[in-house]
């Protein structure tokens, strides 16, 4: 949709952690970012986009896979890996703690693949770190993760207004971006609009 409305403005995507994205937006390196809450909102706008489901990642032969979904109680006897970059906010940590927390989600995935515990994380991260020997199941009572679009708290450029409009689902006609009106020709000014067939 951006390519249709702003074909002359390149749209480039970059992958980074939430902390990196927020820092780069503040530093002027990025125009906007899709990030997970919570973030420090100081100096930033944010539009809520969606709330993501939470899943538990387990080996394919794990007992949890016998059902279509699971609860935190199902993990009570499991070692639940909690990487230091965990994106979920826990009131109480589920399951049993590992001897030490892995540094990253990728490290935690490797431990689960090696048969050391399970991992709870947002669905998109489970898909990002997909492995053939692992699978996942929805956790019905786990904390969820909200994703927002964030950008600097300053006067928006026309391009930024257009992008926000796309994110919010505004059509071209309802966009806040000023549109150029087509010039009227002398002929079009002289011709009155016909509203129906003429009567004789």
Task: Reconstruct the topology from this structure.
Blueprint: H1 2-5, H2 18-26, E1 33-36, E2 44-52, E3 54-59, E4 80-81, H3 105-113, E5 118-122, H4 123-128, E6 134-138, E7 145-152, H5 158-167, H6 186-190
The residue-averaged pLDDT reads 87
Radius of gyration: 25 Å
Percent of residues in beta strands: 15-25%
Main sheet strand line-up: 4-5-3-6
Shape: elongated
> What is the string of SSEs from the N terminus onward?
HHEEEEHEHEEHH
Number of helices: 6
Descriptive key words:
alpha+beta, 200 residues
What would you say this structure looks like, in words?
With 200 residues, this protein is α+β, with helices and mostly antiparallel strands. It is built from six helices and seven strands, in the order ααββββαβαββαα. The strands form two sheets. It has a four-stranded mixed sheet. The protein has a three-stranded antiparallel sheet with strand order 1-7-2, covered by helices on one side. The protein has helices at 2-5, 18-26, 105-113, 123-128, 158-167, 186-190, and strands at residues 33-36, 44-52, 54-59, 80-81, 118-122, 134-138, 145-152.
């Amino acid at each position: 949709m951006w390519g249709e409305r702003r074909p002359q403005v390149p749209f480039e995507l970059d992958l980074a952690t939430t902390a990196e994205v927020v820092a780069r937006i503040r530093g002027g390196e990025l125009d906007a970012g899709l990030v997970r809450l919570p973030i420090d909102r100081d100096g930033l706008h944010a539009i809520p986009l969606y709330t993501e489901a939470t899943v538990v990642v387990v080996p394919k032969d794990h007992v949890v896979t016998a059902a279509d979904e699971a609860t935190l109680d199902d993990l009570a006897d499991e070692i639940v890996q909690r990487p230091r970059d965990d994106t979920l906010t826990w009131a109480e940590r589920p399951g049993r703690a590992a001897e030490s927390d892995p540094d990253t989600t990728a490290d935690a995935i490797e431990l689960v693949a090696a048969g050391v515990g399970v991992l709870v994380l947002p669905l998109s991260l489970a898909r990002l770190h997909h492995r053939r020997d692992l699978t996942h199941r929805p956790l019905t009572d786990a904390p969820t993760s909200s994703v927002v679009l964030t950008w600097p708290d300053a006067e928006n450029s026309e391009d930024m207004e257009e992008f926000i409009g796309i994110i919010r689902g505004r059509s071209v006609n309802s966009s806040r971006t000023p549109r150029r009106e087509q010039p009227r020709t002398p002929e079009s000014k002289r011709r009155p609009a016909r509203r129906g067939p003429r009567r004789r």
